[in-house]
Amino acid sequence: MRPLRYSINVTLDGCCHHEAGLPPDEESMRYWTTEMERADALLFGRVTYEMMESAWRKPATGTWPDWMDEWEIPFAEAIDRAKKYVVSSTLSGVDWNAELVRGDVGQAVQRLKQESGEGLWVGGVTLPLALADLGLIDEYEFLVQPVLAGHGPTLLAGLRERIQLDPVDRHEFRSGAVAQRYRPTRVTA
Prior knowledge:
The protein is an alpha/beta fold. It is 26% helix and 25% strand. It has 5 helices and 8 strands. The protein has helices at residues 26-37, 46-56, 73-81, 105-114, 126-133; strands spanning 4-11, 41-45, 83-87, 98-101, 120-122, 139-145, 165-172, 178-184. A hairpin with a 5-residue loop joins strand 7 (165-172) and strand 8. Helix 1 packs parallel to helix 3. The longest helix has 12 residues, at 26-37. The two termini are 22 Å apart.
């Protein structure tokens, strides 16, 4: 069974809008590239899929755009080639090495988790909330940015029940950001 990891950038006040934190730098992009490469497949909701595709899909020319710095290319290549599953009831189809997931999201993700491999990676806001409520997330990873956003969507807002987490790993960046990894506490009888 492969674990489902939820990873996201978040500000100190819990904002998880993709533009609220620090701009990506070489160190954080290397970190995210490594995390992306640890996954057998990526799991996105429609909004995150469309946002990632617009930013990181390799152009038909086969050449990365001029706006992209050299140190961003390994991340772009990792996400571009990754297998993707997209949970959506509104999209009629997907491409970019992606497969559409419809129906009961809990059952679909449980089936994906039961396949062999290193793990699945989920990002975004809405889908991870649903998966957390279903108890399907095996690891939480937050790249906490030293920023107070003061507005925007907050991390796992609306979670139905409290989830106790055990710390697993911590990594500090030169920028002041801190990657923190946790696993849900498993209750033993």
